[in-house]
Design brief:
By secondary structure, the protein is α+β, with helices and mostly antiparallel strands. The chain is built from one helix and three strands; from the N terminus they run E-E-E-H. It starts with 10 loop residues before the first strand and ends with a helix.
């Protein structure tokens, strides 16, 4: 049994140089492009479950990134406060 090859209408080509998108892969010139599959071929469509977990994973990464940024900012402010307090003590100790 012969395997069905992907037709060029199953792909959408986005040019990296311009905002114009074409429905066929036979674009003119030597521009570099990104080819994405439109999902019309059997077995390649992603369901709602995959999308749900992708969004959940993205939100989890975002929360982790925000927490790391918050901790880094708190540590920086604590460091500045310690330096400020230590500097005040050294001036009064010398006098």
């Amino acid at each position: 049994m012969a395997r069905r090859s992907a037709r060029m209408t199953d792909f959408k080509v986005y040019s990296m140089d311009s905002q114009v998108a074409s429905d066929t892969g036979g674009g003119g010139g030597s521009t570099v492009g990104v080819i994405t599959q439109t999902g019309s071929t059997r077995g390649t469509t992603r369901g709602h479950n995959d999308r749900f977990y992708d969004e959940l994973d993205y939100e989890r990464k975002l929360r982790k990134r925000r927490a790391r940024l918050t901790v880094a900012a708190e540590e920086a402010f604590n460091h500045v406060t310690r330096l400020h307090n230590d500097k005040g003590r050294s001036v009064t100790a010398v006098a």
